[in-house]
Specification:
The protein has 440 residues and is of the alpha/beta class. It contains eight helices and 38 strands. The strands form eight sheets. It has a nine-stranded parallel sheet, with helices on one face. Strands 2, 3, 4, 5, 6, 7 and 9 form a seven-stranded mixed sheet that branches. A six-stranded parallel sheet has the order 10-13-16-19-22-25, with no helix packed on it. Strand 29 (330-333) and strand 30 form a beta hairpin. The protein is globular.
Length: 440
Amino acid sequence: MINSKTNTLNLVNNKCSKNKKAFHSGRLFLFLSDRNFVTLVHSNLEQIQMNYILFDGTVREALLPFTFTRPVADIRIGILTIREKWEKHLGYTTTTLTEEYLMEKFPMVEMEANIMINASFLPNEILTEMVVNLEPNQAIFHKDDVIAFYTQDTQEEVDFDSYEIIEYTNDCIKIEHTWDIFQKNDIALREDFELLTEGRTSQPIPKSVNVIAPENIFLEEGAKLEFVTLNAATGPIYIGKNAEIMEGSVIRGPFALCEEAQVKLATKVYGATTVGPHSRIGGEVNNSVLFGYSNKGHDGFLGNSVLGEWCNIGADSNNSNLKNNYEEVKLWSYETEGFAKTGLQFCGLMMGDHSKCGINTMFNTGTVVGVSTNIFGSGFPRNFVPSFSWGGAAGFTTYITKKAFDTAKIVMSRRNVEFTEQDAAILEHVFEETKKWRKE
């Protein structure tokens, strides 16, 4: 746990021997020698190889089900993931300190000098400069939360009482709840747009496109769009490499269509919406984030929602994002194992990786769906569906891992992505960890 200035950080268990061994593996060694460190020259002219490590902080449980299958750093908000944002700002790659069962897929590389960065904080120019200039026994705090600190591989504990505390007092974006991903997507998308497009020239917008505020639109190489309407007066619109918007679609910014993603025919999109790499959307989408490789390719409504990776929303499926009585939405909390207030009037569907629903599925306001669920049938399923559940409003049974893995292999192979032993091991862990919420 790392958050309070008075907390002591225990690094013993996290700096496990397998990660030090992994440092010497061929792939990781090349990764390190290529880009993972920056040489900082201190006032005493001593050169130190600096290593940046993103850690989960105290928000992991609040960001479930998305952090069941990834570190906090690999959550997508805006155009980029949090990791990609930090790497763009720093100019160097990062590794991860996360849950042990995730560390084979998302390893930590430790060097003599390490700057640990709280992945729940999104970078900006001021914060990045402060992080790069950190020296031993210095830590950056925002109120009571640690943002970053300088540690060395010989340290088994970090006692912030012995650190020089540097206060960060400027504005910053912190991701603390699942709903922050869509609620703060507007500002994150605008910041990413500036970061990615500064000093660059967009590909030309085709003449058939009906455009409002073309200066706020950026098309990467290979982007395809004809006979669509783009309104960037309400926010920037970013179209990634080889992405496609089909004819008749109407889009209001802020909007991001990432690499190889697709907007189907006559789709209606309201900002702030992000369609992650290799994802597809159709129908009506409002203020939602798809991490990547997920499909909502048909008519139906998706609003104020977040979909992880490898999700599929069946044709004519809809989610409610507003209660009939207009009251505050409550959302399932993995921390308290109950429904918690969000402070929001609009909140839709939170769906973890590898989950799917059949045609005509109806989701209540504020529904949380775990990892590897399969939902189908008429009626409204309950507004918390545990991981590895199979069924719908009439009831659920356990979705056994063999069947879930067989489906995952087929789905991923269609996008030329391998379902690895690492993926299987992570999902096996999630299956065991979430047993208590399933009715066997």
